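During the second year of the project, the team shifted from modelling isolated chains to modelling whole assemblies. The rationale, set out in the original proposal, was that interfaces cannot be judged from single-chain predictions alone. As a representative example for this report, we include one of the complexes processed in the last quarter. Its constituent sequences, exactly as entered into the pipeline, are reproduced here:
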Amino acid sequence: MTELRRTLNLARPDDVYNAIVDAHKDLNDAECRDFDARLILLLANHIGDESVIREALQAAAR
Amino acid sequence: MSTYTYRHYPYRRPPELDGKTMRRPVVIVGAGLAGPTLALELAQHGVATIVLDEDDTVSVGSRSICQAKHSLEIWDRFGIAQRMVDKGITWEQGEVYLGDKPVYHFNLQPEPGHKFPAFVNLQQYYVEQYLYERCQAEQLIDLRFRNKVVAVAQEPDHVELEVETPDGRYALQADWLVACDGVRSPVRHMLGLPFEGEVFHDQFLIADIRLLDELPKERRFWFYPPFHPTNSVLLHRQADNVLRVDFQLGRDADAEEEKKSENIDRRLRLMFGPQARWQHEWSSVYTFTCRMMPRFVDGRTIFAGDAAHVVSPFGARGGNAAIADVDNLAWKLALVLAGRAPAALLDTYCSERRAAARENILNSTRSTDFITPKFPASRAFRDAALTLAKDFPFARALINSGRLSVPTVQPGSPLDTADRNGDWAGGPGPGQAMLDAPIDGGWLIDHLGRDFSLLIFGESAIDPGSDVTVLRFAADGLLQKRYDARPGTAYLVRPDRYIAARWRTLEPAKVGAALDRARGGCL
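Output from the structure prediction step:
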């Protein structure tokens, strides 16, 4: 069982952050929700560890 | 124009009306799927029953159509399962569509080597007919049509019933009353017992039709099909070339309008095209609830099937759970009636089957939430899974159009003897259903006893007692693999074919202790 990372895990954080934001640039609210839903499912499956996903769900709810 | 001819079963004047009153060990209320199955099971244990039903014919409408492998295995003990297989439609495959594109194909029984398929689709009226005919051939079963229970009173050691017939009312006393009288359970109402849970508001239209064209065998489920673009549609074949078409209508549909045959025809025309021809069999607009009684045993009254718990239809968990209920109950009730087990054994019927009902309700509610999302984000995730499924195989596993009924796991039952740590890498453990396998040109399930069975792999001289059926096998082949068996391995199987205990080395004292525990000796 792994814990959710709280420290930086990205080599180029600005690039990744802006890539995520930019992907939403031309989307309206409904399209953003659909896009994010697909993104979350893709990432959740890639992470694979249910305990990490549950911890992230709690962390995001703050 | 129905393909099924409803027969009216004869009413016979009960002897109680002429003063012949005696206390009965078991009275069953309701001749649906559960009641007659319980009566047949109890007859195999030598227990006589009276089955009371207010009606005199089988289920009106096809209703519960998916008969699962574990139910067929139970009905096979009475010699009627093959008749269901022969009459019904065997299917194992399903296809899920998004729009008009297939996104997910499933096979419910990917491996061969089982006597029965994962599912046989057969209308409930046929299943009930076969059950009634089998009950009528059984000396120990008194199946009474047009006998309606109108009053129930619980006494400390029995139940008093008042029963209404065309010839008047009579009183009946039962050591145990089993209510298999359906979701609206009159017995539950008469005793004022609670039935708690969640109400769902989405409406669905069932249209059973006889299509005069070629029919698909597999289950088909569409999300947003071109012929019904706002919602989902399920298509499933039954016996007699009948198709079950189930349209999701949404919350605001007008049920009275939707039921009109011209409106049903309009939907079907869009679905099947201008050339198709069909006849109507049965239709129904329904909503559903997920509810469960806090206790399935109240004094001397026991509840089973829809009377005790009810789920959405997604997953075929209504009728099949009812059959599993009475399979769990029958041997326990027989032991208690014979004085061979404490009445507390029946509390494990409640705990084990409530755990199963919780699992069924959880699965069914998840399917319902996937098919009818309750809030915008839920719909967004549902649609995300559907759109990803074509290119990303992982997302196919998220598509939930009904997780179809398999035997539930009953963990932590006080009747089970826990595995020794580290002994097992596979096979069914305590609290899990046994697995069928081919043996010597036949099937393992054909050789099990009515009481407990002990499966022994390799040589052993143990004799656990005359009422235990001992089966000895070489530790090889598919059977060995399914049971993770080595020479010396043994499994103790309950009469309802759940595993009670298993060992790597067999010792008579351990078998005796496990048997005693499984019969309620530790309660």
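Chain B has a mean pLDDT of 94. Chain B is about 25% helix and 25% strand.
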